Amino acid sequence: SDIKGYQHDYTNENELSSKIKGYQDGICTEWVQAGLDGQPNEVNLLNKLKVVSKSSADFEKANDVLNKIEQELAGWTAAERLQEVEDIVRTKVGNFSETMYVEQLRIKVDKKSLELANIRKKSSAMGLLLENIDEENKYIHKQLDSINEPWRGLLKRIVINPLIYAAPLLSNKTSWNKPLAKTSASIQEQDVDIAKIASEAQLSDLQLTLMLAMANKYHWTPWKALLLDDPTQHHDLVHAASVFDVIRDYIINFDYQVMMSTHDSMQANFFHRKLENEGVPSKIYKLVSRKDGVIAERIL
């Protein structure tokens, strides 16, 4: 039993010795990796600590110097920028002092501010004007819509072409975001400008009947009068008779006075007789050239 006890103690001491040897080898490896000379001992460690402490102090001093240099460089950079700004200001100011230059700038700013305020007022006024114009356009187009039927009724009495008197006449459309009234006729399911298919006489009839329809619906003046400049200049006598019938009815039925010019004496006489047959008084004057000028000479 004593031998077994000795063997057990030997085994334990051998294991402990192996562990200590492993610790020592690890310490030696770390010692070498730390750049320490010789074998690990307290004296060498303290000497190395003194060297490291001195190097650390030298590094802190060098870092302080570097920070001061960086601060001085930043100051120089700021000074250079300030100098650049002063040079720009000096160039702008010229012979004036900075105070006088700033005052001139203030005056210019005040002037431009006043101009801007005026522009904004004008812009606001123009906006209001455009709104009012838009409302007026809408109102005008509404009134034009109400003219179509009486206008068509007059056209049927004068123009025999159904493409014209059966056309949409005034149709309100929008072009480039603006209201547009135009006359058109439908040919093969396509809207065609009436001016492209109507004769000179038919165009005159379109204009005359529109004016007559407007005059009878909207009384612009207390004096119910029609001043017509050769409304049948492109008509033969047959077609002119239809126009004269409409004008005669306006005289008799709506109490209009008519002053009409014509280049055709035959048409003038024809209309005069038509009015006389209805008991409507009428007069015919002829423009005559004299030495002292042109006079109107009554012939009927």
UniProtKB/TrEMBL annotation:
Sorted UniProt keywords: Coiled coil
Stored InterPro entries: P-loop_NTPase (IPR027417)
Gene3D superfamilies: P-loop containing nucleotide triphosphate hydrolases
Keyword Coiled coil tagged: yes
UniProt feature coiled coil, ranges: 59-122
Protein name according to UniProt: Chromosome segregation protein SMC
Record organism: Lachnoclostridium phytofermentans
Organism placement in taxonomy: Bacteria, Bacillati, Bacillota, Clostridia, Lachnospirales
